Amino acid sequence: MLRFLTAGESHGPGLCVIVEGLPAGLPLEAEAIDHQLRRRQVGHGSGRRMQIETDRVEILSGVRHGLTLGSPVAMRIANRDFERWRRVMDPAPPVGPLPTGGDWRLRPVTRPRPGHADLAGALKYDFDDVRNVLERASARETAARVAAGAVARRLLESLGISLVGHVVAIGPVRANPLSGGAGVDWHSLASQAEASPVRCGDPLAAEAMMRAIDEARARGDTLGGVLEVVALGVMPGLGSYVHWDRRLDGRLAMALMSIPGVKGVEIGDGFWAATQPGSSVHDPIAYGDVPADQWAADARRRGFWRPSNRSGGLEGGVTTGQPVVVRAAMKPLSTLMQPLGTVDLRTREPTEAAVERSDVCAVPRAVVVAEAMVAWVLAEAVVDKFGGDTLEDLAGAVEAYRRRLARTRGPT
């Protein structure tokens, strides 16, 4: 069983993550995790926090001489901004009451922001200072998820599975649509998206997205958008149709919906498919020479294949062997420089919502978080299916399964 837990507050000493269930012998170095953390900090529309933090991971346990030990991997990401927030976020009881004037950081936050967890969290835990809610509800926590996802990504890469993430839309601006996987050069798209300040592989759309973000910034407003993650080289048979909580599409949807700000998830052409007749939606099945653009890392040239991938690589909660394609819709961020109306928790008087430091648009950075969550769910599904206390055991089980598929069902 593969699982992870995170801990830490936005302005606390740091973030911690514990990953349990990794096989022994997986090559893992801090730089591979740091690379993903750096990617999470880059994107047009980012706020000042990304200029302050330089996220780097410290591996505390579970790895020796660059290889996992099979024991839990514990990691820490320090918050550089903690020094300025030490009095506010100190775990120790304060000596005397905190001053209410002077440093604004010391003042209680009593004006909940519409669209954030502020009010719901304060009611749930009986807080009269929203700081107790927003510090953990903050998307800063996703840095720990990216660290866990980077570990999962290394496991997938050792089995020939890779990930591509890119932005599909920001605000009203949409990139040129792509087919669900047939005929798309995903590796080229990944390079183009990574070179873009908004992680969009369509250069014309990317320019328009940046203009839209700049216009929103000038208005004191925020923008959301849609991102896509594609997993390549995934073998058929991950997930299961036998129980609701083992369906892989449901697990992917839950993982993506858990990202702060995400309000909708689709697999393949999910929302478009709901408007079409079945004859236009489902992917026909063929057998014979597999087109080169659909080969997996170890594929032979003959077997079952599909001329389309509108299902997004999943049928009945089980992977089909095609690229797994998932999209997430992210709402505009809740913190507005021109705040909406709210009610003060203590006085019950109408007022304007509090303003915390925030991005104008987090969609380009959310791509990296979404990649991490997809990587985690797929790695979890691989470990569920194939097991193994060592990477050699796991890889051997995967190879035996692929040989069996090639022998009984055709190449995968």
From TrEMBL:
<feature type="binding site">
    <location>
        <position position="316"/>
    </location>
    <ligand>
        <name>FMN</name>
    </ligand>
</feature>
<comment type="subunit">
    <text>Homotetramer.</text>
</comment>
<keyword id="KW-0456">Lyase</keyword>
<feature type="binding site">
    <location>
        <position position="40"/>
    </location>
    <ligand>
        <name>NADP(+)</name>
    </ligand>
</feature>
<dbReference type="InterPro" id="IPR020541">
    <property type="entry name" value="Chorismate_synthase_CS"/>
</dbReference>
<dbReference type="GO" id="GO:0004107">
    <property type="term" value="F:chorismate synthase activity"/>
</dbReference>
<feature type="binding site">
    <location>
        <position position="357"/>
    </location>
    <ligand>
        <name>FMN</name>
    </ligand>
</feature>
<dbReference type="InterPro" id="IPR035904">
    <property type="entry name" value="Chorismate_synth_AroC_sf"/>
</dbReference>
<keyword id="KW-0285">Flavoprotein</keyword>
<keyword id="KW-0274">FAD</keyword>
<comment type="similarity">
    <text>Belongs to the chorismate synthase family.</text>
</comment>
<keyword id="KW-0521">NADP</keyword>
<keyword id="KW-0057">Aromatic amino acid biosynthesis</keyword>
<dbReference type="InterPro" id="IPR000453">
    <property type="entry name" value="Chorismate_synth"/>
</dbReference>
<feature type="binding site">
    <location>
        <begin position="136"/>
        <end position="138"/>
    </location>
    <ligand>
        <name>FMN</name>
    </ligand>
</feature>
<protein>
    <recommendedName>
        <fullName>Chorismate synthase</fullName>
        <ecNumber>4.2.3.5</ecNumber>
    </recommendedName>
</protein>
<keyword id="KW-0028">Amino-acid biosynthesis</keyword>
<comment type="function">
    <text>This reaction introduces a second double bond into the aromatic ring system.</text>
</comment>
<dbReference type="Pfam" id="PF01264">
    <property type="entry name" value="Chorismate_synt"/>
</dbReference>
<feature type="binding site">
    <location>
        <begin position="331"/>
        <end position="335"/>
    </location>
    <ligand>
        <name>FMN</name>
    </ligand>
</feature>
<keyword id="KW-0288">FMN</keyword>
<comment type="pathway">
    <text>Metabolic intermediate biosynthesis; chorismate biosynthesis; chorismate from D-erythrose 4-phosphate and phosphoenolpyruvate: step 7/7.</text>
</comment>
